[in-house]
Amino acid sequence: MTEEGRGCRPLGFLIGLPFAFIALIISLLGAIIWILGTIISCLCPCCCCCAGLANFAVSLIKLPISIIRWFIDQIPC
User: Which stretches are transmembrane (predicted)?
Assistant: First the structure.
């Protein structure tokens, strides 16, 4: 990759930072949901909905990284 191609990638990173910050707050909520889902599934293993809840919480935790990568990929180089 040339120097020109590398120069535009930080722009996508900077544009995505505010959205990633909001997603970081949402990911903290996802961590709380994940902890509660884990506790509930330990108390009542027959509760199948807790597995779906835990998967949703993990996707919320990964959200900031996904948003930054999406914004970086959107910048044409």
Answer: 12-40
